């Protein structure tokens, strides 16, 4: 490798390369502020924080999450929800977390894996990761104004053999409960009346 150029540049400069802005560059446009990108898709306030630190959007959708559910919206792996009808579909929502175990836990877990069976250190980490991913997905759905997520799925990947990525995704919708049809009062048939 050629060491005649700074190591942070992927390729050596070509002939005629000049450091700095190109000739005639007048600087950023008026009002430009350097910093993090503006809030947009996937960049909700609090995203990446611990679950529970979110602010739900003002929503007109009825609350349908079951009492005692750990999630603020109804979450289902089904494509259709029996007893409910979808009034509005917002589209895909997701939650993502990437975790790594500390050296001590990895060391302990590697010895446990030699004997076979469950490795509690990794089981706990993945269970927590799934919960955090679902909570972030729910946060995104609430900010859209949804009250339910259908067709929820998990996706897990390994990153650099030291970290695990867990993503939860589904379709954000507004649903409302449908009352089952009431049975009609049964009237005796005329044939039954004539038989007596």
TrEMBL record:
<dbReference type="InterPro" id="IPR035439">
    <property type="entry name" value="UPF0145_dom_sf"/>
</dbReference>
<protein>
    <recommendedName>
        <fullName>UPF0145 protein FDA38_03375</fullName>
    </recommendedName>
</protein>
<dbReference type="Pfam" id="PF01906">
    <property type="entry name" value="YbjQ_1"/>
</dbReference>
<dbReference type="InterPro" id="IPR002765">
    <property type="entry name" value="UPF0145_YbjQ-like"/>
</dbReference>
<feature type="region of interest" description="Disordered">
    <location>
        <begin position="1"/>
        <end position="68"/>
    </location>
</feature>
<feature type="compositionally biased region" description="Low complexity">
    <location>
        <begin position="40"/>
        <end position="56"/>
    </location>
</feature>
<comment type="similarity">
    <text>Belongs to the UPF0145 family.</text>
</comment>
<feature type="compositionally biased region" description="Pro residues">
    <location>
        <begin position="20"/>
        <end position="39"/>
    </location>
</feature>
